[in-house]
Structures are given as structure tokens and as C-alpha cells.
Amino acid sequence: MISRRSIVLAALAAFCLAPFAASASAGRTAARVAAKAAAKRMAKASVKRDWASIRAKDRVAHDRATVKANPQERLVERYTTREQAARELRHGIGRDTHMTTGIRRGRSLSAEGAAQRYGLERAPEVKETIRIPKGHPVRSGVKVQAGKPGVAEITSPIPLPPGTIVKVAPVPD
């Protein structure tokens, strides 16, 4: 049997909560938005990579790849910072430096898009266009370790001279 006290409490609760019932859907929407924002923050935190282990995997991948003479002159791109590009214009591109496998047609990747595609530690500021001469030794087709699955890169076991950099252009935001 239901007591009188239970009925009074139920009526009082219904009466007190009635004004909030209309805003219940708004509350659910706010909770859903907050949950999505929290999930995004957690995803970003989990995406923070352990760069030391990625570099170790990258070295192993480079050691496994065969070095071949570049069969023909090839234009490639390299995403980097302004300071690094200035250094490379003066001194050349160091050995085992990562470059794209070719030139992408159409609109350039944004800084964020390039960082995601090629697994870059920080967003690039400039894009270098590099001409790799015919016969220069390269490791081609090595998969990018931290980027989009299936994307390959080129590295060279010996440095490239400063004259191989054809153009340096800012990366769109």
C-alpha cells in the first residue's frame, strides 16, 4: 500500500520539476555538446605521439629499405619550418631527411593537413620544392610512420646540395 507521505512527495516533486521539464531537451543537448567536446579533447591527447618510438620505427624502416639510384630527375616536396628552410637553402638538405614522393597537383595542403598526412611533429610553415637529380641515391616507397596509412616518403642516404631546392613557398593555414 502506498503511503500518504509517498503520494505527497511524488506530487511535490512533479510540481517542483515541471518548469524544468521543458528545458530537459536543452539540457540533453548541452550534455551531448559537452560530451563531444570532451571526446575531442581526449582524442587529441591520445594522438600526442611518443616521438622517440616513432623515430626508432622510422630508422628501422629506413634500414630495411633498399637504396637505389633515382631513375630520372624527380620533383618532390618537403614541409618544414621557415628557419629550417633558410638553413637548408644555405647548407643543403641533410641525409635521411623526409620528402614526399612527388608533387601533388592542385591546391596545396594546409599546414594542419600536411601535418596529419605526413605525420609531422609540428605544423609546417613552408613547403620546399626539391629537384632530385637523376642517379642520386634514394630510398623510395618507405611508409610514413606517424601519418596517414599508406602514404610513402623518399629519403636520401647522402645530403642534397643547396642548389637542389627550387622553390620555398608558404603553406596556407
What are the main properties of this structure?
173 residues, 20% strand, elongated, alpha+beta
Number-wise, the strands total 7
Tell me the structural class. alpha+beta
For the biggest β-sheet, the strand order reads 1-5-6-3
Spell the H/E element sequence. Answer: HHHEEHEHEEEE
Mean pLDDT: 82
Oligomer: single chain
Number of helices: 5
For the largest beta-sheet, the strand count, sense and barrel status come to: 4 strands, antiparallel
In whole angstroms, how far apart are the ends? 69 Å
Task: Supply Rg.
Answer: 27 Å
Q: Proportion of β residues? A: 15-25%
- Helix percentage range: 40-55%
Which spans of ≥5 residues are poorly predicted at pLDDT below 50?
A: none
Q: Judging from the principal axes of the Cα atoms, what is the shape?
A: elongated
Polypeptide structure, described:
It is a single chain. It contains five helices and seven strands, in the order H-H-H-E-E-H-E-H-E-E-E-E. The chain has helices at residues 4-21, 24-47, 51-64, 82-91, 111-118, and strands at residues 68-69, 74-80, 99-100, 126-132, 137-143, 152-155, 165-170. The longest helix has 24 residues, at 24-47. With 173 residues, the protein is α+β, with helices and mostly antiparallel strands. The mean pLDDT is 82.
Sequence-ordered SSE layout with sheet pairings:
Elements: H1 4-21, H2 24-47, H3 51-64, E1 68-69, E2 74-80, H4 82-91, E3 99-100, H5 111-118, E4 126-132, E5 137-143, E6 152-155, E7 165-170
Antiparallel strand pairs: 1-5, 2-4, 3-6, 4-7, 5-6
